[in-house]
Amino acid sequence: MFLLYGGLFFLxxxxxxxxxxxxxxxxxxxSTKAEHKYSREQVLQASRGKIVDRNGExxxxxxxSYKMIAVISPNASNNSGIQRHVSDPANTAKVLxxxxxxxxxxxxxxxxxxxxxxxxxxxxxxxxxxxxxxxxEEIKSNKLPGIIFIEDLKRLYPNGQFASHLIGFALKEExxxxxxxxVGKMGLEYIYDEELTxxxxxxxxxxxxxGFLLPNAEKMVxxxxxxxxxxxxxxxxxxxxxxxxxxxxxEKYNPERIxxxxxxxxxxxxxxxxxxxxFEPNTREGLSTNWLNEVTEQTxxxxxxxKIFTLAAAIEEGVWAPNATYKSGSxxxxxxxxxxxxxxxxxxxxxxxxxxxSSNVSMAYLxxxxxxxxxNEYIKLFGFGQKTGIDLxxxxxxxxxxxxxxxxxxxxxxxxxxxxxxQMVQGMTAIANEGKMMQPFIIDKIVNPNTNDVVENxxxxxxxxxxxxxxxxxxxxxxxxxVTSEKGTAQKFKLNGxxxxxxxxxxxxxxxxxxxxxxxxxxxxxFLGMAPVEDPQLIVYVMVHRPNLEMTETGSDxxxxxxxxxxxxxxxxxxxxxxxxxxxxxxxxxxxxxxDLMASQSKLEAQGLKTVxxxxxxxxxxxYPAAKTSAISNSIxxxxxxxxxxxxxxxxxxxxNIMIYKSLxxxxxxxxxxxxxxxxxxxxxxxVTADTPIVVKLATPAEVTNNKENLDESQTDLPQD
Length: 721
Description:
The chain is an alpha+beta fold. It folds into 4 domains: 2-39, no CATH class; 42-50 and 61-227, Penicillin-binding protein 2a (Domain 2) (Alpha-Beta Complex); 236-579, DD-peptidase/beta-lactamase superfamily (Beta-lactamase); 585-706, Trypsin Inhibitor V, Chain A (2-Layer Sandwich). Helices cover 31% and strands 24% of the residues.
């Protein structure tokens, strides 16, 4: 017995020594096995990058939501006085079916199947994700055992239907490990999916067998890295103006499609872009089979708006004679007759009148004087038949119809040749910007929110000038006459308080099988314009496809209602004051950074600019607008200094100026509403700090008028003095 037990003890001791010396047992490394058993890892979610407008206003961002899980193992309730698992699948399913997108039968089947498989817990797939705080609280109020919630992130588009085909959307996709993360499916969300996607972090720690953190155990934290933030050139306020105007036209005329884009002619920045039909990105409601961004990916025959560039070529070549006459009505070439839109014409008229009346025949005569090859070169110089280079993919080029003499003539008035809306806007920048053609762009910058480093910064790009400044000025004046002349086709595009210029278009729409649709409800109606004429701040291009018109309505009714509404509201928002427009002149901003604050204020005001000072002392640390940029006389310039900040009287300020002031001052200003400031929580002249809460309430002119009318009505029964 002694020898037997002694031998066994010797073998056991040898085994201990071997394991201690080698660290292995049965071919397994014990330290690795222990690490696996007692190590725990918790994933730290990374936020998808934000998409914001030029002022930092949110267009797309991640927001807090919840994921629902059902704990179904009875082990969860062991040694607990509270039931922590689902014991009644039928009742649980009955309650949950009221809140999530699953039927009672589907939930019951899922729970019972998982219980039979002896799973510890089960998720509800797509139906159990992206649950709002409100719904979560309502489910919790039913006190269902075993139903728990985990914090999650959901992609939110707070503006709803807002440049939807441009922004696109992201949806969560399940990965092989069962987790889900948002993936861009359309628009900028798809194009910049890699940049927007963050890198998850993790927390590693040692635990006991039940998963609890061991005392004095170290935690290893790898921070999550959020996705990059994309700053657009879009202006949320101007985009909202456009969306509202398009909704009104859609409801009134029920067209097949509407496309519109607004740009800054001096920089090429796209300020607004939209199309109809559109959709709600949060729910994808209204999303059709057309996923194209029509401003850049869809080609159209532009119609008479293209005459702008034919006119510019004629003036630049020195063959434009506005007072010379020609016989309108028809123009014969081979076996083809080019006709004016009223067929019989207006007799012998001047070329200026012909342009104002949108005569096709006048373009045919002009082509003879310009020369076909020369005209083709101008088309190329204006960027047609080639990509503009806008920072969006899948840009179409269009086709210039110049196979024969007839096609070259029809091109002069925009028929047969195809273009994209963005090409038309790019060409128009040369007219509005003294001959300088600007490349359009939509991405302002891309910023790493983890370091605040600018990863990509777009610079304004000027292309080769197709025409001189003198030619551009003449074209502007002629385009303005189409609005102001009694013979002009653009009279309906006259604005209240502002000058406007542009060209109407009525184009035939090609059928899928060949040929063209015909009829007043089967045309593409468009307008390419700018305002104000003296110093254009906006280019607006509107197209309405096949609207339903009443007998008393014309195609210009559809486009003018959109153009006029969005242009007038946008100019007011940009602080272009109608009453001072005739006196307005362009001023190149001097550089006053580093100069004495008060002296700089006097210097700028002497040049006809209004100044807003942030801080009362020392030198100018920052200015807006920046040096060498253009400002309009009587517009506002912001100067940031040091010291106490005296709050201005914000009444009448636009939201844009409030955003600029907030950004420069770093004050916690809460902005409520849209339009112009109507109320502020602190009176002008108050001394404020970074901790002072400030609220400004904005209202549109219509809201102010309605409030005043309601107040007047409420006072009609009051006793009079």
